[in-house]
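Good morning,

Attaching, inline, the backbone tokens for the sequence recovery test we're adding to the shared suite. The designed sequence is right after.
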């Protein structure tokens, strides 16, 4: 009985740590916020590139991208990763500042394949 009282809470702690680890990963969080959407809805990155995102949506996306900037890439060259993220942050800031041509610049900066091919872990590639 005592062993069961120890095993169950220990298992819950281990399970909770996996959940919190995923939530604390800034890259995963940014992908969920800006690059995924429920079926039938536009992703925030598509709305930003199309010029239809609200200011709040752009700010939320910018905050998520800034959090990525402080993260080490799962694989690949860290300097190249930081450069891609900086370009993405700058383009998003331009959209937020309503600069002319900013949506097109954002669309260019959101190059999923360039980042994923160099930095996404092999186990997560689809």
């Amino acid at each position: 009985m005592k062993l069961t009282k120890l095993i169950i809470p220990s298992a819950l702690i281990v399970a909770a740590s996996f959940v919190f680890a995923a939530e604390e990963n800034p890259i995963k969080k940014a992908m969920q916020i800006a690059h995924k959407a429920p079926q039938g809805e536009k992703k925030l990155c598509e709305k930003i590139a199309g010029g239809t995102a609200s200011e709040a949506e752009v700010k939320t996306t910018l905050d998520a991208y800034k959090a990525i900037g402080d993260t080490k890439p799962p694989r690949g060259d860290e300097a190249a990763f930081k450069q891609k993220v900086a370009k993405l942050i700058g383009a998003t800031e331009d959209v937020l500042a309503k600069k002319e041509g900013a949506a097109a610049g954002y669309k260019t900066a959101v190059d999923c394949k360039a980042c994923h091919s160099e930095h996404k872990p092999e186990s997560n590639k689809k």
